Amino acid sequence: MKNKPYDLFKMLLKTVFAEIIKVFVKDIELTFPKVIGDYDFINHFRKIGPRKSYKLAIYQNKTGKKAIAKMISAKIKSYHYYSLLNEIAIYNTLNSATDRLKKNTPPQYKDVYIPRLINTFEDGFRLISLVEFVAGEVVQNYSAKKKLELYIKITNYLNYIGENLTKAERSQISVRKSLNYIVLYPLLAVKAVITYPASLPYVLVGMIRFLRNIPIVLKNSKSSLIHRDLHFKNILTCENGHALIDFQQMVFSEPLHEYITTLRYFWYGYKRKEFGRLLLAEIIKKNIKRKKFNELFQSYAINSVTHGLTGSGFSRDIILGWFDFFKFSLNSDFTKFQTKNIL
Ligand SMILES: Nc1ncnc2c1ncn2[C@@H]1O[C@H](COP(=O)(O)OP(=O)(O)O)[C@@H](O)[C@H]1O
Ligand SMILES: [Mg+2]
């Protein structure tokens, strides 16, 4: 199987094409193969989360080692196919990089674990990844303070790995430049309004602000290795600490994008907001000295909310939370923010 980072625009074109042919050709029902390498199919695995774009299953080898398989249609190659391809490339790269860096890894990161990619499978119909199964719990029940410590540690560790990749490893990972966000934004905006018509005023106001900030974003964005879907369902407890999973979205891109997207996820509900407030204080502390920080925050928040609105099936509470986050981002002057007012 080719193990290249996907080309964003090729992927977009193919996704549009896939959506069109889906109207005429019904995709076949996918079934898991009985055997992948020396692993046997055991049972299907229930997926947590609102979107069900792929199937999961548990496999096991003769020695009793378990693996989790993620399967997606390869017949209609849409966005989901390319993001699984990306996840496979990321697992390969992170597995080899963390092996190589093992001896030199700073001690504070030693308890963060990246599961091993065991095998991949592709035929004309399906693409499957087989990853070591981590028999842990999700860390959703940690206190807000403990969550923040873990979150910072994981993002710092990813940044460390990103900075220490070889040239060959680096070439396996896609780069999402600020220009990519700008070109993609109008498409997101259209899809957001189609999916949630009530978002029209927000999208229009966001569009104006986003366009105005373009030169600033182009000039001031940075790049590091980011997960892009970092929340506490994607962190599992494991033997020697915590395992990070779900690498479909991982790219080199602006680190604020990571933090702001996580912040958006936590912008509703009482308990979640506690972590959100801590995270906001951390974002401000970390970035306050950056040039044009307000504009950067606004632009990545507008982009993140608009991106969120392109996914269907979210509850009213979640959507209202995102609208609230949007207003907050556009109306705040973070350079004058007193963290004591947030906490
Ligand atoms: N390596 C793994 N070990 C144990 N469980 C896993 C592993 N990878 C995924 N899972 C389980 O499958 C679920 C969905 O996988 P994930 O990669 O997070 O996909 P999604 O994009 O749907 O969130 C996870 O929430 C977790 O419960
Ligand atoms: Mg997940």
Automatic annotation (TrEMBL):
The chain crosses the membrane at residues 178-194. Residues 211-269 form the Aminoglycoside phosphotransferase domain. Keywords: Membrane, Transmembrane, Transmembrane helix. The keyword Transmembrane helix applies. This is Aminoglycoside phosphotransferase domain-containing protein. It comes from Candidatus Roizmanbacteria bacterium RIFCSPLOWO2_01_FULL_37_16. Gene3D superfamilies: Transferase(Phosphotransferase) domain 1. InterPro entries: Aminoglycoside_PTrfase, Kinase-like_dom_sf. It comes from the Bacteria. Pfam families: APH. The keyword Transmembrane helix applies.
